[in-house]
Amino acid sequence: MLRSLWIAKTGMDAQQTSIDLISNNLANASTTGFKKIQPIFQDLLYTTIRAAGAAANAQNLLPTGLQVGAGSAITTTERVNIQGPLTNTGNTYDVAIQGNGYFQIQLSDGSLAYTRNGTFSKNATGQIVTSDGNTVSGAGVIPVTATGVFINTAGLVQYTVQGSTALNTAGTIVVANFANESGLTSIGNGNYIATPSSGTAQTQTAGTNGMGTVNQFFLENSNVNVSEELVKLIAAQRGFEINTRAVSASDQILQKLSTLGQ
């Protein structure tokens, strides 16, 4: 089999994966707190037919060698963690982080996860929870008698009760950061879990030590730029088509070879 057929196959596989990633970005263009993903391409192993520096004759060495590559592949994906624009929703329990950090939440199995999606609400027991019902760490309990809820930029949750203007403290929303946030693993629903690559969560008070601030009544939009993703989609599609041309050219060569000697 011609080497070019395999090389073109790897190129088509890589471009198809790229299209998959772009499609996922576009599908989440309206997902609160979503961070776009970009592929990292890498060339594959090379076959060295003639090594650079090999002897050309008794007196001379070859200045360059002869290598043929094995194609390309997407070896990893990278999450682009730039800030998405904030939108004022006016909802009391909606919060967004302006700057670095993630909200820490407790999943149903008791494990911890992290999210930039601050679409929160109050459940029947007065806890502040995510849209999936997961508890927001540190937020405390808001009593049924509360008439107003206030969350400051440090994540401090306070409330008032009927007949009083005094502020009562429920808790402080936990905000965490990581040495390598790109190493977090997505588990869906806008949630991430820590990995050995990300390092353990470093919890800080919002607005201190480089941590972002908490903004009540706001949500962070997806950081996907639709126009940019559409341009990437066209480029990936063209890359796929070019590789199919290489397959067609190789097929034509094989057809010519099969007719030799007939």
Can you walk through the features of this model?
The chain is α+β, with helices and mostly antiparallel strands and 262 residues long. Strands 7, 8, 11, 15, 16, 17 and 18 form a seven-stranded antiparallel β-sheet that branches. Strand 12 (146-151) and strand 13 (156-161) form a beta hairpin. It is built from two helices and 20 strands. The mean pLDDT is 93. It folds into two domains: 3-81 and 224-259, no CATH class; 86-220, no CATH class. It has helices spanning 3-27, 226-259; strands at 37-43, 46-50, 66-69, 72-79, 86-88, 95-98, 102-106, 112-115, 121-122, 128-129, 135-136, 146-151, 156-161, 168-172, 175-177, 185-188, 191-193, 202-204, 213-216, 218-220.
Low-pLDDT regions: none
The percentage helix is 10-25%
Number of helices: 2
Distance between the termini: 20 Å
What's the structural domain tally?
2
The ordered string of helix (H) and strand (E) elements is HEEEEEEEEEEEEEEEEEEEEH
User: What is the strand tally?
Assistant: 20
| Global structural class | alpha+beta
Average per-residue pLDDT, rounded, comes to 93
Biggest sheet features: 7 strands, antiparallel
Percent of residues in beta strands = 25-35%
Assembly form of the protein: single chain
Overall 3D form: elongated
Radius of gyration: 27 Å
